[in-house]
Amino acid sequence: INDPHLATALKGINRDKIPSALKFIKTFTRFYSSLATRFNPEFAFPNKLRDIQEMVVFMSSQKDVGLRGAARAASRDSLSMKDVLAHIRGKDTPGAKMYERMKKAGGTTGGLGLSTRKQVEINIKDIRSQNRSLRRKATRSLIDKVNDWNTVFEDSTRLSVFKEAVARGMSDEAAAVLAKKATINFNKMGKGGPVINALYMFSNASIQGSAKMLKALKNPK
Question: Is 93 strand, coil or helix?
Answer without folding.
Answer: coil
